Amino acid sequence: MSDKTMKLLAKLLLFAAAFFWGASFMLMKGALDSIPTGYLIAIRFTVGTPIVALISLKHWKYFTPDYLWRGGLSGLLLFGVYWAQTVGLETTTPSNNAFLSAVYCVIVPFLGWALFRERPDRYNLIAALLCIAGVGLVCLTQELTISAGDLFTLLGAVFCAANIIAVARLGRGKDVMLLTVAQLTTVALCAWILALTTETFRFSSLARPELLAPILYLCVMATAVCLVLMNVGLVWSEPAPAALILSLEAVFGVILAVIFYGDPLTPRLLAGFALIFLGVLCSETKFSFPHRPT
Questions:
Q1: pLDDT digits (tens, 9 = 90+) for 216-268
Q2: Which residues contact 21 (CB under 8 A, 6 or more apart)?
Q3: Which of 64, 99, 161, 226 has the fewest Cβ atoms within 10 angstroms?
Q4: Can you state the angle between helices 176-198 and 37-55, rounded to 10 degrees?
Q5: In the 8-state DSSP scheme, what is residue 207?
Q6: pLDDT, tens digit, for every residue of 53-107?
Q7: CA dist., res. 90 & res. 111, Å (int)
Q8: Alpha carbon of 239 to those of 165, 170, 179, 202: distances in Å?
């Protein structure tokens, strides 16, 4: 295939990943009614990890021991993402969870500034102000308080930003698929430790048809397939437009949650979602698309 065809295909793969991830917010909300947080993450990654490992079969000849610590460190951060996001989903709506999770796009430049003295530009500052205003509209009640679910979701966004920076630093010159396998293995191990030490669950309940289908979707589509779609799409895409396409997961999450889960959609929430999305757009594109190249 030509480069032009591959770049078009890459965009389609990224759109597909965003859509499948957007649908997972609603399905996780239903699964959490029957499965504790730790077990849900553990089951999801225990099934998803070997699928990605098999897909990456040709890459294993490049494996070296340093993938263990690189994948382990970034995997701990990835576990933090899924743990905080899943805990948050227990007490907030799928639509709130989806859009607040997208705030990671705006956090990344500021976290890079704190860690590596890489100063954010004016577009990052504008994006931060837009996101803060949007988060306030989405999360704050009339008493100016924030729910625990929304707070945990924002914590997940911080972990996500840290994970992106870690992968960018630790993955330089490394095979991204092997690093992904090491990451997912770490998430599965952390989740099993959490589940076995703090939670109880009867595995026989997984045989229920209404629970089995969402679990299979989360394990196969939202974990293994989406990660492969994203990795392949990123190889043939520019970072900024790719991140913008992936952030559409929040839009898909809200639309599906409203249609199928019955999430309320008030004018205030719509205004908050719009500001958050505008902030992500500003951070990732710096509004460069209206200008013609010189």
A1: 999 999 988 887 888 778 767 665 566 667 777 878 887 888 888 787 778 88
A2: 222, 226, 246, 249, 252, 253
A3: 64
A4: 160
A5: G
A6: 998 888 898 899 999 999 999 899 999 999 999 999 888 888 788 878 878 877 8
A7: 27
A8: 13, 17, 19, 43
92, two tokens: 């907030």
Dist CA 200 CA 203 (whole Å): 10
Backbone angles phi, psi at 47, to 5 degrees: -80, -40
Distances (CA, A) of 224 to 121, 146, 270: 35, 33, 32
Q: What is the pTM of this model?
A: 0.81
Tell me which residue has tokens 């990671």: 104
Q: Can you give the residue ranges of every domain in the chain?
A: 3-285
Q: Which DSSP string corresponds to 218-254?
A: IIIIIIIIHHHHHHHHHHTS-HHHHHHHHHHHHHHHH
* C-alpha–C-alpha distance, residues 151 and 42, integer Å: 23
Residues 245 and 281 sit within 8 Å (Cβ to Cβ)? no
Rounded distance between C-alpha atoms, residue 152 and residue 156, angstroms: 6
Structure tokens at 293: 């190249």
- Of 89, 124, 109, 138, the residue nearest 276 (C-alpha): 138
Length of the chain (residues): 294
Give me the amino acid identity at 77: L
Q: How many Cβ atoms are within 10 Å of 230's Cβ, its own excluded?
A: 23
